[in-house]
Amino acid sequence: MTTLMNFPSLSAALSSLFGEGTQIETTNRISGGDINEAYGLTLTDGSCIFMKSNTKENRALFTAEAAGLCAIARTKAIGTPKILGIGTDEARGGYSFLLLEFIYGKSRARNYWEEFARCLSNMHRAPTAGFVSKGKYGFTCDNYIGRRSQINTGHDSFTEFFRDCRLEPQFQAAARYFDKEDWKRIVRFLDHVDEILVEPEYPSLLHGDLWAGNVITGNDGAAWLIDPAVYVGHAEADLAMTELFGGFPPVFYDAYKEASPLYPGYEHRRDVYNLYHLLNHLNMFGRMYLSEVKHIIRGILF
What we know:
Elements: E1 6-7, H1 10-18, E2 24-30, E3 37-43, E4 48-54, H2 59-74, E5 83-89, E6 95-101, H3 112-125, E7 143-145, E8 148-150, H4 158-173, H5 180-191, E9 204-206, E10 215-217, E11 223-225, E12 231-233, H6 235-242, H7 250-259, H8 266-285, H9 290-299
Helix pairs in contact: 3-7, 4-8, 6-8, 8-9
């Protein structure tokens, strides 16, 4: 993985990156996230950078995010904001921060969605050596899906990885929402996950949380990825996530399938992949997601 620049304070980071004496001239609060605070910083030398901040205890969120962005950048397949550094500052009671390249929101390039699909396909086809400590699926470290931890222990089987590191921890965290009959279905489902999911032809680096809010127009006018929850898995899981909350335009899916044809039965497996995200939302935001979770569980037949 790319070595991340760590700083003891924001002022030290600015001096190291932009020259001694560089300070913040203006600070603009940027809305959008519900986990971190975000700011656009204009510096005394005229530079603009993007900063996320959180409590100093939550620095691990930024370390994981930076590692994910570095992994995606290593594939050389799709754009991500350049990472400038991370750190912890004791000012104002203490906070952690992540500094990134500022995205100016240029107009979208021609064939934006088709090119995005082809770039995503290229990322999914990129070599994954070095992204998993042991085994073929997982990641070198655990990270986060939203504000919840995400286990990335290496596995040789994707279906076993998805059961052990994705579905089971979420079901256990949501145990209070299910009755005895639900649990009978859940246990049977987990025992037979390998009869629904399939092993991929090759392992793929996934963004891991690929919905519309995590795709932005980069400084080159192309689609860039932000806020990853990366791991090595089956490319289908990324594609499934794009369909969970509204979906992308049809031209995106047509272009992706042309570049990377899907295995037969994807439409059935899609619900299992997205069950992970729905369970995560159930555990983060409450029972408004319970009916969707139970609908999928009750609809799975063996």
